[in-house]
Amino acid sequence: MKNDYSGEFSQELKLLLALLEMEEGSSLTFEHWELMQDADWHEFIALARHHRVFPTINRKLQELRPIRVPAFVMSMFQRDYYRNTIQMLALSGEMELLASQFLHKEIRALFLKGPVIAADLYGDVSLRTSCDLDILVPMDRLEATEAHLLSLGYVKDEYITSVLNDWKWRHHHITFMHPQKGIKVEVHWRLNPSPSKEPDFEDLWSRRRQSSLISRPIYYLGREDLFLFLVSHGARHGWSRLRWLLDIKQLMNQKLDWSKLIVLLRKHQLLHVGGMAVCLAAKLLAAPLREEMRPILASRKAEWLAEDTLFYVQRMVNLHSPPVPKDIERYHRQYLLALMTTRQKLLFFASILHPLAEDVKTLPLPAKLHFLYFPLRPILWASRKIRDRSSGKKREASA
To answer: What is the DSSP string of 125-141?
Structure first.
């Protein structure tokens, strides 16, 4: 494995990356055998699970059958692979049902991830993990989509609280769970939360593709739009899971129109994010670089951001399970700011002045007076800080 980043990686992480960068049909090298020597296999399994790449690792180990890998490791990966296959088949069935239902209700829907992406990028739904279905619908059909999911037995997660309709830009999806099927569906009206700049639904729909996974029409993002979505999503989470980078590597191996993609990334202020993804995929997973990719790698900012993400990879950071440790939370806030363009930073800081649900809890006002939260926001924020500090001192005194 040849990359500029591996110096401070653990032996187990180096082994994971070395296996992930192997092309189909290649053989183990001396470096692979050396990394397997004295590896902590429990740590290796934990890393593969955390990064959601165990289906790919299982396939490579089953093909190569290296004698230095203990039997319990092979068995553990095989078990995880079977469980994931069952999960992906269940999601595939539900995706087919929902696509048919939405078509009947004249709801245009684009499937963003899940089995449709697994089939497109890996050629096999069992080779990628997914815990839910992500669907993008037009804003004007959001209410109809919600009503239909409720009629199918889904239950809405009412975690979004809103003041003056700020949910439309502060958030980008609502979550539904089917209690009997155990399936989660996220319905998007945006690809990413504000202050991202992204294509509107009509543009995405005009460039859609139809999946060949099943006979019924299931629509998903065009190849260049998928790249834009996957790099913006992975970057927002610090590439803290290698599966997202593996997706990028698989997509880079497809017939992307790089000139079209570069125009798209520039238009939506994501050229540095695309460059970061390509840089990481090349250096960590040995994704091939070609001449047509050169403009995407020209930005120094892309290289700096790529180095910043090593913080997450080295520490096996999980941003999806609160509470996130304070030091990681602080780093992630700074990282997200570094990710933004100047325009996005201005929008982000302006959004801080917009009232929050906490303001309503601090000083409940009738809906017709909610406009007063704008001038009152600094006062309400200060009162909460004083109250929280006072509560903290009381807890310390009682302890």
So the answer is: GGGS--SEEEEE--GGG
Whole domain around residue 310: which residue ranges? 222-351
CA–CA dist 384, 381 (Å, integer) = 5
Same domain, 196 and 144: yes
Nearest alpha carbon to residue 210 among 200, 218, 199: 218
Distance of alpha carbon 186 from alpha carbon 135, whole angstroms: 6
How many angstroms from the chain centroid is the CA of residue 232? 8
Contact 9, 314 (CB under 8 A): yes
Which residue in 211, 157, 161, 64 sits closest to 358, CA to CA? Answer: 161
Bridge partners, 156 (sequence order): 176
Element (H, E) at 220: strand 219-220
pLDDT (tens digit per residue) in 243-279:
999 999 999 999 899 999 999 999 999 999 999 999 9
Number of folded domains in the chain? 3
Classify 111 as helix, strand or coil: strand
CB neighbour list of residue 243: distance below 8 Å, 6 or more residues apart? 51, 52, 53, 128, 129
Q: How many CA atoms lie within 13 A of 100 on its CB side?
A: 10
341 and 227 in a common domain: yes
- Assess whether 248 and 322 both reside in one domain: yes
Tokens 């990334």 belong to residue: 265
Given 202, 221, 240, which residue is the final one in a domain? 221
Same domain, 287 and 336: yes
Compute the distance between CA of residue 192 and CA of residue 198 in angstroms, rounded to an integer: 8
DSSP 181-196: TTEEEEEESSSS-TT-
d(CA 288, CA 249): 8
* DSSP string of 27-51, one letter each residue: ---HHHHHHHTT--HHHHHHHHHHT
Q: For residue range 302-352, what is the model confidence (pLDDT) as tens digits? A: 999 999 999 999 989 999 888 899 999 999 999 999 999 999 998 888 887
245/307 same-domain check:
yes
The answer to the question of residue 234 being in a domain is yes
328 part of a folded domain: yes
